[in-house]
Every structure is written in C-alpha cells, then in structure tokens.
Design goal:
five-stranded antiparallel beta sheet, alpha+beta
C-alpha cells in the first residue's frame, strides 16, 4: 500500500510560487538585456567600420594618385588595428576593380555591391563568411577616387555577448537558492499571524472562551480574519453563557415543583387511603404536572427563540390581521377579568419573520397586560410607523412596575412584588424579548406603579410602504 504524500504547507507553496514567479521575471529580463547588448555590440561593430571607412575615404580624397603611398597607408592602418578586430581593408577603382587588399580581406575577394559601384552615397553593410569562427561584418562605400571596403570580425563582439550569457547561466543556481531562501523568509513572516491564530484557536475550548486571538494592528486581511474570529468567539461565549444561565435557571425552577410532587406522593403512600382521597391527590398532582409542563414548554420556546429564526419559516406577515387574531383569542380572557380590550390605530404594513413566533410575542405581552390589570381597567394596542420600523404598543392601566424592577422583569423566572401573587412561570416577557431580538427588533418598557405599563415592540418592516397581503 502506497504511503499518502504529506501535503505541502502554505509557507512552502508560497516560497515555491514566489521563486518561480521571480525566476520567470528574471529570465525574461535577462533575455531582454542579452538581446539589447547583442544589438548594441553589433552597432559598435558598425561604428568601427564607419570610422575606418571615413578615414580611408578621406585618405583617398587627399591621395595624389600614388599607389605606393596608399598601399603603405592601408598596411600601416591594418597593422595598428587591434588584433581581435581582424581588420580588413580593400580599395577598388571606380569601376569596381580591386587595387589593394590587406588584413582579413587579403585573399578573400568580395564582390562590391552594384548600388555602390553605381554611385550610391549611402554605405552598404552586409555579412561575409571567411571560414572563421565568426562571420565578418563588411561595409562598402563610395569614395571620390574609388570604392572603399572595410571588414571586421564579429568574434570579439559575439564573445562578449556569450560571456554575459554564461555569467547569467552560472549565476542562476545561486540566484535560485537566494530567491528560494528569501521567499521562504517572506512567506514565514507573512504567515506568522496565521500560526498565532492556529495556536490560540487550539487553546480555546467551551470552558475557555475568554481568550482572544492576537492582532497586529495593521488592518490587513489576516488582521480582519483575526477580528472576525474574535467576534465569532464573543458570540459563542455569549451563547454559552446564556446556555449555562438557562440550565441553571431551569434546574432551579424545576427543582421546587419536582420536590413538591415527590413530597405529596410520599405523604400519600405513607398510609392507606380511600379511593376518593387518592382521586383528590391525583387531581392535585395532575395540576402540578400541567404547570410543570407549561414551564418546560416555555423554556423550550425561549431556547428556540435565542437560536434565531429558521430561514424556512420566515415569511411576510401582515401586522393588522395578526394583532386582530391575537385580540380575538384573548377577548374571552379579558371579559373574564372584566378588562376592556381595544385596538386603536394600526398601519396596514407587513413584517418579515416567523408568523408563529410573532403571534407568541404579542400574545405574551397581551396576556401579561390582562393578568396585571385589575377589574375595570383597560388594555390598548396601537401601532405607528417610524421610518423603516413599526412600533407596536401594548398599554395597560394595571398595577405598574417600580423603576428599580423594570429591567429585571425581562429576567427569566423573575417575579417580584404583586406579580408573585399571580400564577405564571416568569418566562412570558423573556420569551417576548428574545422573539423581538430574533426579528431584529427590541422591547422597551415605560411604567409607573398604580398607573400602568406600556410595552413598546420595535420591529423592522418587511415591505415598507406596501399594503399587507
């Protein structure tokens, strides 16, 4: 069985990619430099030819016609030239007949271009092969008393270009190592924050959510990633804290009724009882179990609302029919408590959310208002638009809530003052607030003891300005 090859680290990949990209760039640059230098060397060879030709043309112009003097001049000129250039000079009469040939042109008769014989003033430059290692560059130009032909070997110029090419080739391995090392160091420095993020993330557990991933303050993508992960950890920490609090509150609230049930059962089993007595005890236990079931159901609803809205249950909910439906449901309850229930203004708009949860939200607030409003009181529901939000107010003329207790009424299982005398689980208002939060809204409370309370639900609109359907 073949062993699985270990995957390359990001640091190695970045170093290799950096090296490859840099080598490609350097190769292209080196090729460009070589081409430019080769072209410049050829231009240098042309310049040497032109300078030699100009001197010969001037000599022919100044010559008195003595062939001995011209031959001596050409021989001296060839002898004084640098050996590597392999200078060759040939002089022709105006008809193109060879008069003198020295240097590399001696013994190598080259045909003079016709355009030069015909009197063309512009020099003709061409290449010729004398069987040497490198071709010769030849220039032929018209002179006042004839034609001058000058040749130089390109060997020396090509040798310089080849030397440069070999320097580049030999330097390539060293350049490769330097580039790879530099790329490795750069990748290591760039990825150091990721290593810190990984190390910190491994230390973070459900019991250790207080640790933060360090940031460099540079504001780059890695800093943004670290900040995003810190925000996520903060949300997880908040969720875990809510779960711990929920578990502690649930255990505390369920302990008392369960202990009461157990106590009643133990007392009942201590001695024999009549069927009617057993029936009475069982009826009482049934009521306790129903109350306990309601509390458990309420806690499950609270846990679900804290988890957020299920996207599959989100819909556009018409506000006016929703409020009328809730009021119709609680109309008998209000009549039983001798409380007047009415609705005033309400714009015809829609809310985006879970229809069941929104019904539960307003049902909890309305039920809460009816419970704490004495006979003869009044509960009013009204709604008004405020930009892109809707404010739904549930106003009662009940017992009111002291200033110091107003924020605590949203705590789970918290029931104080006169509220302890009214049956309930202490979860209605916390569930209502969590449902509002899940819909991107909030609940505000204004209350005065003996005057009444107003719960205002702020929710974003689903279709602003559109009639509800």
């Amino acid at each position: 069985m073949a062993l699985a090859r270990a995957p390359l680290s990001i640091q190695t990949k970045w170093a290799v990619r950096y090296t490859a990209a840099l080598l490609v760039s350097i190769s292209i640059f080196a090729f460009y430099v070589y081409a430019r230098i080769d072209r410049n060397l050829e231009q240098d060879a042309r310049l040497v030819l032109e300078l030699q030709a100009q001197e010969l043309v001037q000599e022919l112009a100044d010559s008195t016609g003595s062939s001995e003097g011209l031959t001596e001049y050409v021989e001296r000129h060839v002898a004084s030239a640098e050996p590597g250039v392999m200078l060759g000079i040939a002089v022709y009469d105006p008809a193109g007949n060879l008069l003198i040939a020295r240097g590399s042109l001696q013994g190598h008769t080259l045909e003079v271009p016709r355009e030069v014989i015909r009197g063309r003033t512009t020099p003709a430059v061409y290449k010729a092969d004398f069987g040497d290692r490198s071709p010769f560059l030849v220039l032929a130009t018209r002179a006042p008393n004839g034609i001058v032909q000058v040749a130089v070997s390109q060997h020396r110029f090509e040798e310089r270009a080849r030397h440069l090419a070999w320097v580049m080739v030999l330097a390539l391995p060293l350049l490769l190592l330097l580039t790879l090392g530099t790329g490795w160091l750069l990748a290591r420095g760039s990825l150091r924050p990721i290593a810190q993020i990984t190390t910190t993330a491994r230390r973070i557990t459900g019991a250790n959510l207080d640790e933060q991933i360090p940031t460099t303050g540079s504001g780059d993508e890695l800093d943004q990633l670290a900040a995003t992960l810190n925000d996520m950890i903060a949300r997880l920490r908040e969720s875990m804290e809510r779960m711990r609090q929920f578990s502690a509150d649930a255990a505390h609230e369920l302990r008392t009724p369960l202990a009461a049930l157990r106590s009643q059962i133990e007392v009942t089993l201590e001695k024999d009882r009549t069927p009617s007595e057993y029936r009475g005890v069982l009826s009482g236990l049934l009521e306790e179990v129903e109350t306990l079931g309601d509390a458990v159901h309420a806690m499950l609803r609270l846990a679900s609302s804290e988890a957020g809205i299920d996207p599959t249950r989100r819909a556009s909910v018409a506000l006016l029919p929703l409020l009328d439906e809730v009021m119709d449901f609680f109309e008998p309850v209000a009549d039983e408590h001798k409380v007047e229930l009415r609705r005033t203004s309400c714009p015809d708009v829609s809310i985006s959310g879970d229809p069941t949860w929104l019904h539960q939200l307003f049902a909890n607030l309305l039920h809460n208002a009816i419970k704490y409003t004495p006979a003869g009181g009044r509960v009013t529901i009204e709604a008004s638009l405020h930009g892109g939000r809707i404010a739904v107010r549930v106003r009662d003329t009940g017992v009111g809530i002291p200033k110091g207790e107003q924020e605590r009424v949203f705590a789970r299982f918290h029931r104080t003052g006169a509220r302890q005398e009214v049956p309930g689980s202490g979860l209605g208002l916390p569930i209502a607030r969590e449902i509002a939060r899940a819909h991107g809204g909030s609940i505000e409370l204004e209350s005065m003891p003996g005057v009444g309370s107003t719960f205002t639900v702020w929710l974003p609109l689903g279709d602003i300005g559109s009639p509800a359907t």
